[in-house]
Design goal:
- With about 150 residues, this protein is mainly alpha-helical.
- The chain has helices spanning about 20-30, 35-45, 45-65, 65-80, 85-95, 120-130, 135-145, and strands spanning about 5-10, 15.
- The longest helix has 17 residues, at about 45-65.
- It is elongated.
């Protein structure tokens, strides 16, 4: 094996081999080193573990009430990959917390807005009307012509 190093002692033989990328990523996740695990996945182009780790990391941040950072992680690693079910679940959680404004500028509209349920768009528009921000309401209506 060209990747291994062998140590030979009187009664034992040890083989040292570098970790596989997946093994390193699993170890990092088990020890809560999410940013390093994400960086490793990104470097070696591991898309599926990248999405799973980013989702776990976002959930950990969410539990720590670091909503804005969790949303940034989601947007950067997951939501740009057209996972409408994750968009919907996090939008519903934000709606329950009355913090839908955090995700509002990031809602996808240009590619395929029909992937998200219309009530998410409606809820965002209702927050503008509830706060009497009519200029923001009209700005969003103008930005979302495909949806409305």
């Amino acid at each position: 094996d060209p990747n291994g190093i062998y140590f030979i002692f009187q009664r034992e033989i040890f083989r040292l081999a570098p970790f596989e990328t997946v093994e390193r990523v699993l170890w990092l996740v088990e020890h809560n080193y999410y940013p390093k695990a994400l960086e490793l996945c990104k470097r070696y182009n591991k898309t599926k573990p990248l999405i799973e780790i980013a989702h776990k990391f976002a959930l950990v941040l969410w539990e720590d009430q670091q909503y804005k950072l969790a949303i940034e992680i989601l947007v950067y690693f997951i939501l740009g990959r057209a996972h409408s079910s994750l968009w919907t679940s996090f939008a519903l959680q934000l709606l329950d917390l009355n913090k839908l404004c955090l995700i509002e500028p990031l809602i996808p509209v240009l590619e395929n807005p029909t992937d998200l349920p219309p009530f998410i768009y409606d809820s965002i528009l209702c927050t503008y009307l509830d706060s009497r921000d009519y200029s923001g309401f009209f700005f969003r209506i103008r930005d979302w012509p495909v949806v409305y």
